[in-house]
Design goal:
The protein has 148 residues and is an all-alpha fold. It has eight helices and no strands. The termini are far apart.
């Protein structure tokens, strides 16, 4: 035979009361964090960062449009490409060799013949040729700028 099940009415918790209880307990539980937040807020106010943030928020779309215009400009793209190229080049340079050159105590300067022999090595010629080509590109850019 079937047994009767007790009928209970479901009453969901009052989320508003739960939130109010948690809000009342928060200052006691998080006193250090609240004081740190107030300190940070005061320092931001003293430095004017809150005013800047407020201005940025009120300017909203205008700021985003200006940043997008600058970021997509030819100059920024060229600068980023050059930075990436130099970064790749720096990755290939052996820092131990540079450190050995810079930290080697020299009693007297090298003779011109020794410097000339080092300049005639294949690696030095590749470096010199690259430096001269880069200077040539810079010079041509400077001349075009003066003519414009």
């Amino acid at each position: 035979m079937a047994i009767a099940v007790e009928f209970r009415e479901f009453t969901p918790r009052n989320s508003r009361n739960d939130l109010m209880r948690r809000l009342e307990q928060a200052p006691e539980q998080h006193v250090e964090a609240i004081l740190s937040a107030y300190d940070l807020l005061q320092r931001m106010h003293e430095k004017g960062l809150i005013d800047i943030a407020s201005g940025l928020l009120s300017a909203g779309n205008t700021v985003i449009e200006r940043v997008a215009d600058v970021a997509s400009s030819k100059q920024v793209i060229t600068a980023l490409r050059l930075v990436l190229m130099v970064t790749n080049l720096l990755d290939k340079i052996d820092p131990d060799q540079i450190a050995a050159i810079l930290s080697a105590p020299e009693r007297k300067p090298h003779s011109l013949l020794t410097i000339g022999k080092e300049a005639m090595s294949e690696d030095a010629r590749v470096g010199l040729a690259t430096a001269v080509r880069v200077l040539k590109v810079l010079g041509s850019s400077l001349r075009e700028e003066k003519l414009a």
